[in-house]
Write a structure and sequence with these properties.
Low-confidence stretches: none
Mean pLDDT: 84
Radius of gyration: 20 Å
Number of helices: 7
Order of helices and strands: HHHHEHHEH
Strand content: under 5%
Distance between the termini: 25 Å
Largest sheet: 2 strands, parallel
Helix content: 40-55%
Length: 180
């Protein structure tokens, strides 16, 4: 794991230089995409201009519609990490970060079946090593849309609500010294 991560971070640290070299070799550069203006801090998603809401959801949809495959390198890294935690008898909990499911569904940008299939793949890997995965986006656990600033980031109030939920879920296991 350490060797793989070292190689990954080396490429990440050197990405600017590699990109400069690529531009010099090919004489090309990336297409410039206009950046959206920054959102005011803690503005609720439902209080944004409808055009901005649409832009946020479309950006999420561009990156969220994929199937996790068994041979995915990131899934392999998760498996290696979980194996290492298991070998050290570590008590670890993984969780799916809250998504603004209400907004994503209202824009038709959330595929529940695809999401659930991907979570099932992750859950199998994590639980195979005796660890825990909590899905905060399944029915009954979803945070209200009013607690989000966009599709994936909570407001300060949303973070506080999520922290309390996470604490309530983990506190009994931590207090008992047992695996969550």
């Amino acid at each position: 794991i350490d060797r793989t991560l070292d190689r990954h971070w080396l490429l990440f640290r050197e990405h600017d230089e590699l990109f400069d070299r690529w531009q010099k070799l090919t004489g090309s550069g990336p297409k410039a995409l206009p950046l959206a203006p920054a959102l005011p801090k803690n503005t609720r998603f439902d209080q944004l201009d409808p055009a901005r809401q649409t832009e946020i959801v479309e950006r999420y949809a561009d990156f969220a519609n994929f199937h996790i495959r068994r041979n995915d390198s990131e899934l392999r890294m998760l498996d290696l990490l979980c194996a290492q935690l298991e070998s050290r008898h570590a008590h670890a909990v993984f969780f799916m970060s809250p998504l603004n499911i209400g907004a994503l569904e209202s824009f038709g940008a959330f595929d529940r079946r695809l999401y659930s299939a991907n979570v099932a793949v992750l859950r199998r890997v994590v639980e195979r090593h005796g660890l825990t995965l909590i899905d905060w986006n399944r029915p009954g656990k979803v945070l209200p849309s009013a607690l989000f600033a966009d599709a994936t980031h909570t407001t300060d109030q949303g973070s506080a609500v999520f922290a309390r939920r996470l604490y309530r879920q983990l506190a009994p296991s931590i207090a008992a010294g047992a695996r969550p």
